Model the fold of this input.
Amino acid sequence: MRRPGSLICLALLLCLCLPAPGHGQDILDAPGIRRMEARDNACAITFDDGPGKYTDALLDILKAHHVRATFFVLGGNAVRHRQTLLRMAAEGHEIANHSYDHPDFRHLSPERQRDEIERTEQVLRGLGITPRFFRPPYGLYDADTVRLAEQEHMVLALWSVDSQDWKYRKLSELEARVLPGKGEKAEGVFLFHDIHQTTVNAMGDVLDKLAADGCRFVTLGQWTEELSQRAAEPGAGGAGKTKQ
Ligand SMILES: [Zn+2]
Done:
């Protein structure tokens, strides 16, 4: 009589203690990105908060520079700029989820967080786009955000180089923040915003200088794929994503 009960207890214990396969709750945050900086100066250029009225001009610049970027779009803006979004996808850029209305997720209930993520997901899927990454607005999140991104099969991704282009609207200020200093390598995940005209105007020059400093431009998806290939190489150190 006691045996079935013991087995049930053991099964329950295992369920509670062991994470389900594929549920690693991975976060790509700045310390994690810096720990696993890709070899060969891989630079993932990311743009948040669009698409907006300057995004098409940015796409022209990216095309002229043969750079594929990752766009973390807002669902609300995606609805207003569907054609731009379709062009982005057609030109080989990666499109990711940045919420619907850009709220601070730490102040939202889990239900409202889910709504923000899923509404954007629906807009993107309606256009044939399946986002692999979620970036919470302001880079701020809580345990619910991590869980929800994982449930939607997205990696929560931040950045390692912040242009602060929302604050500094001058080319020299942007370049001071994103170009490598003496003895530093040009690499990492770069954060810009395509809703600012000053950023779009500066981007041609910024990309030229990053390329001159050795940047090899990749999308965030390519960046993480290169890292996982490296991790699978014999003798790899195994530096991986941040676990939280
Ligand atoms: Zn944002």
User: Anything to note?
Assistant: Residues 1-25, 238-244 have pLDDT under 50 and may be disordered. Residues 48-49, 98, 102, 137 surround zinc ion (CB under 6 Å). The longest helix spans residues 110-126. DSSP finds ten helices and ten strands in the chain.
